[in-house]
Design goal:
This protein has 696 residues and is mostly helical. The protein has 35 helices and no strands. The chain is elongated, with a radius of gyration of 31 Å.
């Protein structure tokens, strides 16, 4: 190792350690958060993550675990990202802290890569300072909080790492070297990384386009000629050939991506993206341009941050007389002016390309299922960070006497950004904080009210849930999910007629709504409308073929109809689809127990415990079976284990008392009868058994 390298090494270590410290300062104290918002659907409840599935199936499913070819699929295809969640689950289980820590490490890695990316193009000492400044700004920028603190944001982090690595490889090993056998290997590496990025998230497809932009900006004078047509065009043939290769690769990736989804576009509802759903060309155009304004504004001034921007968050711009049209004019005048003045500056053009090109998949050219999503700004913000640092550099050149003032302003804004990022990261630790914070930014967003109501329901806060569900429906009267959940709330309080009315309205608004059909079936069963209930369950299964919860409820319906064989069949089907379906297992075992098939209960419960080893209901039924067979010791062991797992359930204590009663251990029987009555004083049968013991 040379002395020069030795001298540089400490500086390199300090540089990257400083960037790491900045990332940890922003996010390190907020790793103890929960799974929030989309984390629950994409990770916790996603069978591709939690259930033993073949790798082939994962590559046939969307990000949420549904078949890509299903009409209800959003067509988001990120199998490699899902595989990272699956690997973590298989190694450590579902642990939000560890998963958030992995996200933080990936953010640090992406931050590090910004420096060699810029240095792979621009190598002067001033450029190194720009690279460090941009990386530091990227590390602390509040717009990244959703991608880093929200676990599903990992797709953005992984793509960013591959995006920057690919471009470093391209700029250093392909664009600057003559074609040779060795360069073929580098091309292969670039193509592999580009393909992997597409399997991480859709915006990975822009790597080739960014490489083309680098070729044009750095290796031709096409951009300068756009400002001055008199200068001769310098467009080397080797550059043209590389661009053709890149375009071919990009086209192949596009065809592959369309083939994966069977060349069908996703279907989104009006509530998901009112701009995309607008039928007026003028309204759609003006509204989409206004979204560009908002997207750049929240990068420039990241105060308005929300986990969701749908359903009334941003009203449509449908006329030139709308006051917001002025902001559109100002933004586009500024942005186009910036592009024009940058045509002679490769550095500024590269920064602008980094803003525009990675944003293309989210720009509205293709129909999207969101209005604004902060996570998609993760890579485009790299270009913004470079642009800001280049601006500061130019300002220092123009006003050298104001260096101290500029330095103070930069430090002040840095402190503000760190503070804002820490506050926002804290809001992503729990759903309560996340949803409440959105009310400040998007008070008219029905989805925000819906999520607050859903959270209140989970916590048993029914009054609050009713209030926010009604507010969500007032804001968006055709919000079928809110109407369904409100119907479920009425079902829980026993108002089945109001529940049925709301659930019928829900499926009227969205016929292909399997959850609503299933819940309607539950309510109709409670109203003794058995034929209607069966029809509703069948409709649910029509729209979702693999629906274990619906099959379980169909089994319950057949029990109500006194058809135990059909009940057993549907519970078994539910278990076949979900081997960890506790309620279906418990019902089958209870059915076998009622039929006096004690040995079958023992056999089936052993199978159930292989998949759900700590389910108290299964342990309880198994304990009763061993008690009936006279194996009192095994029965005792199982009862004690069930009680340990669920100490607040009096029947476990009572049945253990019965076991001791039959075992001729009256003292222990009395002891456990008393414990049962302590948990639930209203158990008449336990009082009677205890009274019989005391009379002996």
């Amino acid at each position: 190792m040379s002395s020069r390298t030795n001298q540089k090494l400490p500086g390199i270590v300090i540089k990257y350690a400083f960037l790491t410290l900045a990332c940890v300062l922003c996010y390190g104290s907020h790793l103890n958060g929960d799974f929030v918002f989309d984390d629950t659907v994409a990770i916790v409840k996603n069978w591709d993550v939690t259930r033993p599935m073949s790798i082939k199936e994962i590559f046939q499913h969307d990000f949420w675990g549904f078949n890509l070819t299903d009409s209800s699929s959003h067509k988001s295809y990120r199998p490699l990202t899902i595989l990272t969640f699956r690997l973590e689950h298989s190694l450590c289980g579902l642990n939000a802290f560890r998963m958030k820590l992995v996200n933080l490490i990936l953010h640090i890695f992406a931050t590090w890569l910004i420096v060699p990316f810029w240095e792979s193009i621009f190598c002067s000492p001033e450029d190194q300072i720009v690279a460090i400044g941009a990386a530091l700004l990227f590390a602390i920028h509040p717009i990244h909080t959703e991608a880093v603190a929200g676990i599903v944001g990992r797709a953005e982090l992984l793509v960013a790492g591959v995006f920057l690595t690919s471009l470093i490889l391209y700029n250093t090993q392909i664009a600057r070297k003559t074609f040779s056998l060795k360069s073929l290997l580098f091309y292969l590496g670039f193509f592999i990384l580009g393909t992997l990025s597409l399997l991480l998230k859709e915006n990975g497809i822009t790597i080739s386009l960014m490489a083309i932009a680098c070729e044009i900006i750095l290796n031709t004078n096409l951009t300068q000629k756009m400002r001055n047509w008199r200068i001769p065009l310098n467009f080397p043939a080797k550059v043209f050939k590389r661009i053709v290769v890149l375009l071919t690769f990009f086209t192949l990736l596009c065809v592959f991506r369309l083939w994966i989804i069977d060349f069908k576009s996703p279907s989104f509802r009006v509530m998901d993206n009112p701009v995309a759903a607008s039928e007026s060309f003028l309204t759609k155009s003006l509204s989409q341009m206004y979204l560009y304004v908002l997207n750049y504004w929240i990068i420039l001034c990241p105060d308005w941050l929300s986990f969701d921007w749908a359903l009334g968050s941003i009203s449509l711009v449908d006329t030139f007389l709308d006051a917001r049209f002025l902001s559109i004019v100002i933004f586009w005048a500024f942005f186009l002016g910036l592009i024009w003045t940058s045509l002679n500056s490769p550095k500024q053009l590269t920064a602008l390309s980094l803003i525009v090109i990675p944003f293309l998949p989210a720009c509205g050219i293709i129909k999207l299922g969101f209005v604004i999503a902060e996570r998609v700004l993760y890579i485009p913000s790299i270009g913004h960070c470079f642009l800001i640092c280049l601006g500061i550099q130019k300002l220092l050149d123009i006003a050298p006497k104001a260096k101290k003032l500029i330095a103070i302003a930069v430090i002040l804004f840095g402190v503000i950004f760190v503070a804002r990022t820490r506050i926002r990261a804290n809001e992503w630790t729990t759903e309560e904080l996340l949803f409440s914070s959105a009310l400040r930014v998007c008070p008219n967003n029905a989805k925000v009210h819906y999520n607050i109501a859903r959270l209140a329901t989970d916590r048993g806060e029914k009054e609050r849930a009713f209030r926010f569900y009604h507010q969500a429906i007032d804001l968006f009267p055709e919000y079928e999910s809110a109407i369904m959940n409100l119907g479920n709330l009425y079902r829980e309080i026993g108002d089945f007629h109001e529940a049925e009315k709301l659930l019928l309205r829900s499926v009227e608004l969205l016929e292909e709504f399997p959850a609503a059909w299933m819940n309607l079936g539950i309510v109709q069963a409670a109203l003794k409308k058995y034929n209607n209930s069966l029809e509703s369950y069948q409709r649910a299964l029509k729209y979702r073929k693999f629906y274990p919860t619906c099959l379980y409820n169909m089994g319950n319906l057949f029990i109500e109809m006194k058809n135990t064989s059909m009940a057993h069949r549907y519970w078994s089907e539910a278990i076949a689809l979900n081997l960890r379906h506790e309620k279906a297992w418990a019902n089958i075992l209870a059915l076998l127990d009622n039929e006096g098939k004690t040995e079958e209960v023992v056999r089936m419960s052993a199978i159930a415990l292989q998949h759900i080893p700590n389910d108290p209901a299964i342990l309880f039924t198994r304990a009763n079976a061993f008690g009936k067979m006279g194996d009192f010791q095994e029965s005792e062991r199982l009862f004690l284990r069930a009680i340990e797992l669920r100490p607040d359930y009096a029947m476990y204590y009572a049945n253990l008392g019965v076991l001791y009663h039959r075992w001729q251990k009256p003292v222990k029987a009395a002891e456990w009868y008393r414990k049962a009555l302590k948990v639930d004083p209203n158990l008449r049968s336990v009082r009677e058994n205890l009274s019989k013991l005391q009379k002996k």
